[in-house]
Amino acid sequence: MDLLEAALILVAGTAAGTINAAVGSGSLITFPTLLAFGIPPVTANVSNNIGLVPGGVASVWGYRRELADQRRRLLVLGSMSVLGGVVGAVLLLVLPASAFRSVVPVLIGVAVVLVALQPWIQRRLARRRDGREARADIGPGAMVATALIGVYGGYFGGAQGILLVGALGTLMTESLQRLNALKNGLVTAVNTVAAVTFLVVAPGQVDWRVVVLIAVGSTVGGLIGSRIGRRLPQPVLRAVIVVVGLLAIVNLLRPA
């Protein structure tokens, strides 16, 4: 890895941390960047996951006010996220690398569609909330959805946050800002438990140079994203994520 590649990975990590805190789908920036520099897909995914954990912690800290009265949600849904994250991380490690290379383009494709449709999803959620009071209860549907998204997040994770906001927004009547804060906590739980699993079970898949660069960048980005929130130019960010995601699909589908 030369100096230019290191600088670009650091920039990608900062962008991912910012996008994750304010929108979600930051992995669609960092993961394709790592692939472009020739890092094997599984190693890129594992290292990216570990590197994004500090950024997630920073985003949770930035949204601490919105999370102050959601501790029960974090505890209950967070336990579902942890269970799902462990399952997803184990699947990544036990399935052959060829399976990951085959499945991830599909996952990225789904993630790109979700990112592109996010404004429509938000409008639908806003209309659904009209005239209704926020509910603090957590039903079985929210728990199952969180666990399944946790499996997805432990295995890959791109657009995990968009999936959570969309799913929980249809199951709980809540503001998008508070859902975004909850999403940051749940995604961080998934990434953390997956990172621990990777470190314990497959430390050889970790590229520590990548981890450090993304960790530094994502921490800075997490603090930035949590501060500016909706003031980010989301249409521009959404367009960048979609383009990068499509490039990642093309890169993964190319003959090895």
Strand content: under 5%
Give the integer mean of the pLDDT values: 85
Q: In total, how many domains does the architecture comprise?
A: 1
Low-pLDDT ranges: none
Tally the helices: 12
Which helices and strands appear, and what pairs or packs with what?
Layout: H1 3-22, H2 27-36, H3 41-62, H4 64-67, H5 71-94, H6 97-116, H7 118-129, H8 140-155, H9 160-171, H10 176-201, H11 208-228, H12 234-253
Molecular structure report:
It is a single chain. The chain is mostly helical and 256 residues long. The protein has one domain (3-253). The chain has helices at residues 3-22, 27-36, 41-62, 64-67, 71-94, 97-116, 118-129, 140-155, 160-171, 176-201, 208-228, 234-253. Helix 5 packs parallel to helix 8 and helix 8 (140-155) packs across helix 10. The model has no long low-confidence stretch (mean pLDDT 85).
